[in-house]
Structures
1.
Amino acid sequence: MTQRPPLSKAELEVARIVWELKEASVRMVFETFPAKRQADFSTVQTYLRRLEEKGYLKVRLDGRTKIFSPKVKPRTVIRETVSDLVDRLFAGDSMPLVKHLVEDKDLKPAQIQQLRELVDELEEQSNDE
């Protein structure tokens, strides 16, 4: 697995926009950026440059305009970020995180059912092995 530097909250926000748009210029990301964040154009440009330098985005030129696109899938970033969190907070043991999420997030009945189905599926897989 490629070791990439972790993303800041703002970088992740910009990466999400690029993932959603599939490819985007600085202007497109800037115009999609949440208004409440009040980032200026050059700040968005800086975030995109950092994401490219960190290996999360790739860039191509369309005339004189840089077009950014994902180099890493969102699922990969989620996996790496959660893995890093589990390692740092729980010494690699994911159960405390799962327990926290289940107990502290007021799951709705439909979500509890999804969780049951996931556990059932995991049990079936482990029985097949």
2.
Amino acid sequence: MLRFMTAGESHGPCITAVLDGFPAGVPVDAERINRELARRQMGYGRGRRMAIEKDQVEIRSGVRWGETMGSPITLVIENQDWKNWERQMSPLAQDSGQAKPVTRPRPGHADLAGALKFGHRDVRNVLERASARETVARVAVGALAKCLLEHFGVFVGGWVAEIGGVVASTEGLDFPELLARAERSKVRMPDPQAEEEVVELIDRCAKEGDTLGGVVETRATGLPPGLGSHTQWDRKLDGRLAQAVMSVQSVKGVEIGLGFGAARKRGSEVHDEIGFDSETREFIRHSNNAGGTEGGMTSGAPVVVRAALKPISTLMRPLRSVDLVTKEEVKAAIERSDVCAVPAGAVIVEAVVAFTLGQAFLEKFGGDSLVEIRRNYEGYLRQVREF
């Protein structure tokens, strides 16, 4: 089974991911991962932290001479800001007291719930791990999943659909053009007019000490039908995608296909009619309102996932809170933060979708090497075409 864990704090020495179950023989290079990490750092409205960091991955195990070996892969991304926090985040007992405790939890963050859960009087013990800095590891893992999927013609990409109520117009744009426009945009929006409005909105919120959320969309093309399963609740692919996306910091809602929009239409307007292409001998859908899944399995149509990200919890004009020690009303703590991280969120959601699809792909066509997986995959495609 393909799985991973991450470790590290926002201002600790590094963020680490260990990926297990990745097959042998997949070409991998650090620069491919670094390109994905650079995409995560971009976006208008990011804070000063992104000016400090230049995320670069170090592959410490599982890859030899540019190919995976089938053993666990360790990815390490150093935190450049660690040099400014060595005493404050030191693991050594003698460095205790080198930083003032954070006792004013921020509404909307993990601060208070985490402090109560673990018994911490210093909220920094919670916020350092709860920080979205952790997602740098998930983007690195997602890059490896893309390396695998692209060998089989599966491509995963995403963009920003909405920020602060400003919606990008994407009508008439195909998948490659959407991605190309998003890559050229300061806010990863494929609509220049919407981008201009959003930049002005971000500037206005920055002056007001406020933050912005939005909606991102991810699509995956080239997937065969049958990934996932209808047989058990925890094997349904749409459920697994929703859980993976909901685990991303700030995400508060997930839609697949029409999502909530399907609830406002009649069945005749929602369900994707089935056809058959006699040339390719493939069953097709005449629309894709279901977002590429039916009954917890891929249908063969593109998988479409949207995520709603709430505004960042740290406000430069902080909201009301209560001091953990004195229990008196105070203004919430201020941590260095972004005005808008939705463009980064698009890259992160893209990564977790790629990993979840890679996981399902290996479950279906499982093998210990790329050669073995390809044999299983091609045999399945023949079976489907001869159905």
